[in-house]
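Batch manifest, entry 17 of 40.
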Amino acid sequence: MAKGINKAMLLGHVGKDPEIRSTSGGTMVASFSLATSERQKDGQGNWTEKAEWHNLVAFNRTAEIVRDYVKKGTQLFIEGKIQTRSWDDKSSGEKKYRTEVLINELTLLGGRQGGDGGGYSNGGGYSRITPAGFGQSRAGGNDDYGDQGISDDDIPF
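Output type: structure tokens
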């Protein structure tokens, strides 16, 4: 039988601050949403943006990195796998479903410059995080778009 592939790759912005919790066994879990968007033309030829929201889950060391560095508006590149879980709702008895991306690798991109505390910044580069922890930091261009008149206030998240 052929082996299947379950891999998700997402590039987007965090919608709200991550929720951090621990399981009864002591495993740290971070849950948050990520918005991706794409542009498309409508019937009149005008460009519109459509956002898609994704539920993300990180465990252990990756969850610690999310706790320490990821905030609302942070731009991330995620590699992971898609999983749908189900449970019975205690109040209604209905079966509920939730589709999530379980994070295997997390790359922190851009970030905010300055002291308002929002987002992570490493000088315009990026850091790749795997379940084993931080990978190498890589130098990149200046991601704050200062010379183009775009500021962090222009981010819709």
